[in-house]
Structure formats: structure tokens, C-alpha cells
């Protein structure tokens, strides 16, 4: 399917690795001019070089999204490079050490809220005026299944993602008439080297596999003990990137205020 993204200018925060990198790469394949963001300049430039090496258009931007002045400099630099941002993907954030309700501290919650919710807010506030002038824009906030299915541990992260979901709906209502669509995506259990190592360790401790056991066998044995996923597999980075690219495209012009769960059917409700 042609997503009509050629020439669209996309800023993907936290795209020097992981989910953000996969999103940046796929948007570039679809013809978007991608601003790859990270705090580490070398990692960010490495992703840019790889995208350009495969025929895409990409530029590096860096900055700490918990710093108002750094965000202002970042958006100024981005606009100097591409003119304005048509597509914003708020991917930066993430969880910290898993705390229990007995050990969690208010400072942990404040820090998590700053790097997840307020980081997204800072960037949205900077790019929104030009989207409004253009009367076209796409904002995709990367949330988490934890925002609607919070586990017992890590309550700060779940609360942050729930806040991001609510923020997305409010934003969608505020800007829909101006041609700007705002949506959230909530990944479930997604593959990463860290997840594979965790699954393998779990399997070895229980005699379910060893270092040479194929990943598919490990996945089949261990996943049901971590999460009830009807599809029977963990998600892949491309599963997230494909959905983001669609929501960022002109084809999604009547979709806004949605929280799209990419979870293999793990959620028990609509």
C-alpha cells in the first residue's frame, strides 16, 4: 500500500535505538524525511548514516527532553533542517527500575512523569503552532499496554502511560478541526535483546531450554508464563513501525483520539 508519505517531515523522539529506531527506518523507507533524535550523538548519527546508506533521507537531532531549553534548541535545529515538522512520534521515555508499592517513592513518580508525559508535552507544544498554520499534522504517542492493564509492580510507569492516553484524547479533540490527528499506540510484549536474554534465563532455570535452543522454542515455552498472548508470539519492532506509519499517513485522515493496542490479542477487553 502506498502511504503517501513522500516528502513528509517526521520527528521521532528516542529513535537512536529500539522501537523508535524501527519507526524512523520504516518512515524513511516510505519516503519521509526523518529527524532521528537521541541524547547520544554518536548513536543518533549511526542510525542516520544507516538510513541514508539504504537510500532514505534522515538527519540527526539531539537533546534532553526533560529540559525546556534543550527542547527549544532541538526544535529550532529541526526546523532549520527541514522547515517544519509534519509528523511527530513521541517515543522517548521508558520505565526505570521496577519498584513495589512498599518501596516506591514520590521522586520516582515525578521523574517518570517528566521523561514520559512532560517530555512529550514539551515537544508537542513546540511543533503544534506550525502544524496549525499548515492545517495538517500527525502526532503519534507511544504508550504501553501497562496504561490500560497495569501490573502490580512499576506503578509509576503504568500511571504515566495512562496519563499519556488521556492526554492524547484531549489533544485529538482540541486540534481535529485543524487537520491534525493525534493517536496513541500501546505495544504489548515486544521483542528486544533484553527480552530474549530474560526469556532464555527463565527457560534455563526451569530446564526448558539451553543456550543453543532456537528462539522459537524458547518463545513458545516461556511466553505463556509471562503474558497471555493469543497469537502465541511476542511482537516484533516492525509490528509497531507499520502501525505508526499508517497513523502518520494521509490515509488515516479520519482516525483520531484512538489508542491502538499492538499486543497480539493480550488485552481482555475492547
Task: Give your account of this protein's structure.
The chain is globular. The longest helix is centred in the middle third of the chain and has 29 residues, at 106-134. It is an alpha/beta fold. The protein folds into two domains: 9-190 and 235-262, NAD(P)-binding Rossmann-like Domain (Rossmann fold, 3-Layer(aba) Sandwich); 191-234, no CATH class. Helix 6 (193-205) packs across helix 7 (215-226). Helix content is 47%, strand content 14%. The chain has a seven-stranded parallel β-sheet with strand order 3-2-1-4-5-6-7, with helices on both faces. It starts with 8 loop residues before the first strand and ends in an 8-residue tail after the last strand. The protein has helices spanning 18-29, 41-53, 68-82, 106-134, 155-175, 193-205, 215-226, 237-247; strands at 9-12, 33-38, 57-62, 87-90, 137-142, 180-187, 259-262.
Ordered list of secondary-structure elements with their pairings:
Layout: E1 9-12, H1 18-29, E2 33-38, H2 41-53, E3 57-62, H3 68-82, E4 87-90, H4 106-134, E5 137-142, H5 155-175, E6 180-187, H6 193-205, H7 215-226, H8 237-247, E7 259-262
Parallel strand pairs: 1-2, 1-4, 2-3, 4-5, 5-6, 6-7
Helix pairs in contact: 1-8, 3-4, 4-5, 6-7
Largest sheet: 7 strands, parallel
> What general form does the structure show?
globular
Helix and strand composition category: alpha/beta
Q: Going across the major beta sheet, what is the strand order? A: 3-2-1-4-5-6-7
Radius of gyration in whole Å, from Cα?
19 Å
Gap between N and C termini: 27 Å
Q: How many domain modules?
A: 2
Q: Output the CATH class name of the largest domain.
A: Alpha Beta
CATH architecture of the largest domain: 3-Layer(aba) Sandwich
Q: How do the helices and strands follow one another from N- to C-terminus?
A: EHEHEHEHEHEHHHE
CATH topology of the largest domain: Rossmann fold
CATH superfamily of the largest domain: NAD(P)-binding Rossmann-like Domain
Low-confidence stretches: none
| Strand segment count | 7
Q: In DSSP terms, counting alpha (H) and pi (I) runs of 4 or more, how many helices?
A: 8
Helical amount: 40-55%
Q: Provide the residue-averaged pLDDT.
A: 96
